[in-house]
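Input record (one chain):
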Amino acid sequence: MRRGAIIAAFGLAILVGLGGWRMWKTDKAPQAAAKGGGPAIPVTVATVERRDVPVKLRANGTVTALQSVDIRAQITSTVREVHIREGQTVAKGDLLVSLDDRAEAANLKKAEAQVDKDRADLANGQRTLERQRQLFAQKFISQSALDAAENQVETLKGQLAVDLAAVESARVALGNTRIHASFAGRTGAIGVRPGSLVQPNGTVLVTVTQIDPIQVAFTLPEKEFAGLQRALAAGPVAVEASLDGETLSGRVNFLDNAVDTATGTIRVKAEFANRASRLWPGMYVNVSVSPRTLPQASVVPVQSVQTGPENRFVFVVGEDRKVATKPVVVSYLEGGIAVVTGVEPGTRVVVEGAQNLRPGSLVSLGEARPAPGEGKGKAESKGKAEGKGKGGAAPS
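The corresponding structure, as predicted from the sequence alone:
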């Protein structure tokens, strides 16, 4: 019995020792690799590229109408008929509301009759003037009598001009009884009904808001003003608005004339075609605009950039497949890429597997990965060429 216990204890000790040796070996593997011994650590690498990178600025935008007008009456009258429905789409020139026009129509007829009378009086005065001139040439009347006839004709001409203006005024008043849409848009709530009394600057009959095209207002940091101004001088600046997973395209059509000193931002507006009415006044959307480009920037996948206690760095793979750290400065991040300074184009950097690396670690190279945005065919050909010329692409 005692002998069996001794044997069991001895076996347990052997198992514990074996497990400890394996753990020690595993912990020492990266260190051995770092010293040039032991197995190579598998990693995935990418090549630093040099290309132009558009800088995308993102902001929260508010959808606003290009035009929105409160329609009011310009004369005192009563509503005869409302020709539209609430929420209806109207075209430019569509009849919205008709007012009672009987008084205005009567005033127009009266003014036109007065003009007819003035023309008749003027014709009679001109005939009288012609006779007076003949009599004056024959010395039958004095100069003062001729002057009086001429003055009468001029007075009648002035009266005709006054009454013609009165006719135009009456026509304008009559036209104000038929209220039309001044632009295409969508009607809001109707504030009157047939029989309602309306007055100038009184109740809003209806509000018409332009929906297509429409604009989005947003702000950008003032440091982007110079780049945006140069881009606008060169041509239209494209803007994208994201809404429920859909991307809409527009262009900048307004840049404010002053920077907001309280926020350090400048107000920008962009115009969007909106035939499907996806954008609606008052909505909030995410906006992105690319006013400038970083020319010939060094680009790496964002996963390759490591953060140390003092700075950011990347693991660079040398010709001997050993890695070294290289400090970098990240100037821009976008869509899985990082624009960095500190590494030269063509340098191989570690993208995956960096957690097991130390300076001097020996690595085996996985398939080379291009930075996001590079064509698939180009990436594949570059990976094959790299593997062939620099120690093979397959893990060792």
